[in-house]
Amino acid sequence: MLVLRLTDATHLEILAHALDDIPLEACGLLAGRPGDDKVERVYRCRNAAESSRLYELDPLDHLKADRDAESRGLEIIGVYHSHTHTDSYPSPTDVAQAPDPGWHYVIVSLKDAEPVLRSFRIVDGGVTEEPVSIQRR
Fold this sequence. Notes:
Blueprint: E1 4-7, H1 8-20, E2 27-32, E3 41-45, H2 59-71, E4 75-83, H3 92-96, E5 104-109, E6 116-123, E7 126-130, E8 132-135
Parallel strand pairs: 1-8, 4-5
Antiparallel strand pairs: 2-3, 2-4, 5-6, 6-7
């Protein structure tokens, strides 16, 4: 079974971005070593949709993240975004827009007092939750 591995720092970066962008949905990209499910870098991206109900990665931010990751020997292994009003589970829109079956899809719910981070795989319209391991350094 695949497990998304975050460090304390990458976990906190994702949560901070979700909280910083309220009332909009936050979004960004996750990078790791090829063939590894450990997130090495988090890339904050602008939500081009500027919405509290959906997200669209800014194309220029996506390109910059791709290039920076490649320069570090990393690749994009996933995407994250926040749900400001709903549970951390992929919406039908999230499923329809999932670009890569190999990616991790991380969703942070902000509907309750404490953010809830969960990760999923989305393949051919099917959603499977995967464990998230937060590694202390």
